[in-house]
């Protein structure tokens, strides 16, 4: 078990190193000069040169990379060119929006998808299965930003139950902050729930057709009992895999929804940093988000061991 965890940790470190190198090289070859963006196209060349020296942009690429990675390892992510504030401070503020939003959305998605997927598998080819499958197909086909606009029109503008956008901050109270995240979380959760529902349905149907379930039924176990005791738990591995991928997406890929609802999250910060050519923010954000994806995958691997005793025996052997 410890050897498996050590291998996963080594893979995590190697992935982060490769990601940091690729991100740095990509940002280095992109056209555009941060100093020109900061000072404007009318700035004098000596002023631009002084700013490049201040930002360390005139150093050799290898030295820039080592300087940046050293800052990542020590927690010093540098200073934003645009905001003139430490990048770690910017990310710390924005993650307090994106992380609760991602958790809210994945909990809501799971609460919808797993019961619906199990119901569809238990009533295979019946009205419930057809209804759930149709709803899931519609949820996959419709973009989440379209859901977001419908939610704003109905629940924010027409009914006035929730704010149409913005984030008051946690200092204003948990109820106000969570209220501002309800509609974005629903807009993110519905398409993800549709995908997870289909995966759950397929996984449960596959397990229901396996020999050990048929044997349990032949010994007198009812279909409902076989579903609860054998099918659902054994079907969780692909479901947990998709949940891990979805959480990574919800944490790192919510640029559109955060812009629709005007939320000051990581996705919106990344979008603004790219538009403003704020290289240090883009580099640090991408590496940290990649690290979050790798860590989530590591947690999913550990969840496999908790779910499936066959994997624990294989690892122990």
TrEMBL record:
It is found in: Cell membrane. Its main location: membrane. The chain crosses the membrane at residues 9-30, 101-122, 134-157, 177-196, 235-261, 281-307. Keywords: Cell membrane, Membrane, Transmembrane, Transmembrane helix, Transport. It is a multi-pass membrane protein. Signal peptide: none annotated. Residues 95-300 form the ABC transmembrane type-1 domain. CDD domains: TM_PBP2. One of its GO terms (molecular function) is dipeptide transmembrane transporter activity. One of its GO terms (cellular component) is plasma membrane. It holds the Pfam family BPD_transp_1. SUPFAM superfamilies: MetI-like. Belongs to the binding-protein-dependent transport system permease family. This is ABC transporter permease.
